[in-house]
Design goal:
The chain is an alpha+beta fold. It is 31% helix and 16% strand. The protein folds into two domains: 104 residues, no CATH class; 122 residues, no CATH class.
């Protein structure tokens, strides 16, 4: 309940919106709308007495979206994720706005996530159907397109019973070499196929809840008036727009373009530092006990 005397806009912030159990405005003060950034840029950086005397709004929108994508890839690293139970075919589709995987794990019995390593020793190629002749000709449909089926690699992978850990031979104790430490664990493994858009998991993860964390460009399925920019990155957006527009503009001196590019690079570096959010207390807690001997 809001405190008596709280302004109306703050009361609306803490109250639920209709039948929706969560309110859309919770936590939004840390963001700006992309359209506000564009409007501020056109008002402040464009004019007869400015370096950019005239620019079409559509061009500014294009460069603004490109700058926001660069932020998501390089500086923001705002992870998105979802949890779902692994189906019987051991395959999960990649999210629509998937750009790069950050961490794939499963939920343990204690509620913590256990990271699943990626298996780089296999792949999921396209498998073409063949006839039973000695030449093993590829089968075609009526439009002369090759017919495809389930790869043998995928079938054998799903039927794999071990967890990637080879039990040592007691007769050769102390003489085991060449173990692949990347797969020597009991968390299973996965194969990522970006072209076909799915993740294939090993059979020992059957029935577990999988958590997929990934990086998105922050624009999929959003209108221009719904795309958000973090306030700590606002200054970079302005500098990026100036740099990108001047680089494409005819008749601008080279030293002005280079100065704008250096300013945009410095703003990106400052944005990374701000968004890293390194806290002394957390760093001290992590380093605590590192100098103690393990007995």
């Amino acid at each position: 309940m809001p405190i008596i005397g709280t302004p109306i806009d703050q009361r609306e912030y803490y109250q639920n919106s209709g039948n929706n159990p969560t309110y859309d405005n919770w936590g939004t003060y840390q963001y700006l709308l992309l359209q506000d950034v564009i409007n501020n840029f056109l008002l402040t950086y464009v004019g007869d007495d400015k370096v950019i005397n005239k620019i079409d709004r559509n061009e500014v929108v294009f460069h603004a979206k490109r700058g926001l994508q660069e932020l998501h890839y390089d500086a923001l690293r705002e992870k998105r994720g979802f949890e779902a139970e692994l189906p019987d075919n051991l395959k999960m589709h990649l999210p629509h706005d998937f750009v790069s995987a950050v961490k794939i794990s499963y939920v343990g019995d204690d509620g913590t996530t256990r990271q699943i390593p990626q298996n780089y020793n296999t792949a999921t190629p396209t498998s073409y159907l063949q006839d039973n002749s000695a030449q093993k000709n590829i089968l075609m449909d009526n439009n002369d397109n090759a017919l495809t089926g389930t790869p043998v690699i995928e079938t054998n992978w799903a039927n794999k019973s071990d967890k990637g850990v080879v039990e040592p031979d007691t007769n050769l104790l102390g003489q085991r070499y060449g173990m692949d430490t990347a797969s020597a664990n009991h968390n299973g493994s996965y194969v990522l196929d970006k072209n076909q858009g799915f993740i294939l998991f090993s059979s020992d993860l059957s029935g577990k809840n999988i958590v997929i964390e990934y990086v998105s460009d922050g624009m999929y399925g959003l209108a221009d008036n719904e795309i958000k920019v973090h306030k700590l990155a606002e200054n970079f957006m302005y500098d990026y727009l100036v740099s990108s527009i001047l680089k494409q503009k005819f008749g601008v001196q080279e030293y002005i373009v280079r100065r704008a590019q250096k300013q945009a690079s410095a703003s990106l570096r400052n944005t990374k530092i701000r968004l890293n959010s390194i806290k002394l207390g957390e760093l001290t807690q992590i380093l605590r006990g590192r100098d103690k001997w393990i007995k």
